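Ticket #4471: structure output looks truncated?

Reporter: J.K.
Steps to reproduce: submitted the chain below (221 residues) through the standard prediction queue, then opened the result file.
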Amino acid sequence: MLERTTNIEAYAPQNIGAGGDRSVGLDLMAEEIFIRRLGRFGEISSEESGIIGSGEAKIILDPIDGSDNMLTHFPYYGASIAYRVDDKPVIGIVCNFANGDIFIKDKNQFLQGKLHSAHFRPVLKHHTSKIGIFEKAALHPKLTTELINNHLKYRAPGAVALSLAYAHYANYMIFLGKMRSYDLEAGLFMCEDLYMYKDETHIVISKDKDVFEKIKTIILK
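Returned output as attached by the reporter:
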């Protein structure tokens, strides 16, 4: 009975979080763990509870990126952490809890490893990519049709921070919609060496200049 009660609480809807989405119990449980571990490093700005603590450095936190995927047991959800000093990101960490992938970037290197492993390797661009990532694609049917007409295949997995972390492996990455630092801060930091366009409602990223220019033209026309 205790286990069943815990599961119900974990998946039960909670209040609307600082990011504007309704939290569930697992969001708040994850946030509590991160606060305990990270609070001594600076002020935390979390998608669930907003500003927590204080300090010269700032931590931008999404405790569970892809909460709907998690609730559906779709294996594409994790956490996003950006560490800012002097108003600039200096460390980004994005983790996929479903498969254990973890990405870590600082000013010197960008690495990928697995949770509970000490082995990391550099993140390299995959030049044989066949598909792109289009987050929130279902909200933009005209654009998806144009991408298909231009032979630009895509997937819409539903976790923006993770999709940014995987952008070096994809043909391109698109996100259209509300820009929230919780979703974007760490992932955009990881994409600094890729071709990137960003404004208040559009993000287009690709490692290939021709693909980048083609998609930007489609999106912005």
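Triage note (M.O.): checked the attachment and the full token line is present. Residues 25-38 form the longest helix (14 residues).
Status: closed, working as intended.
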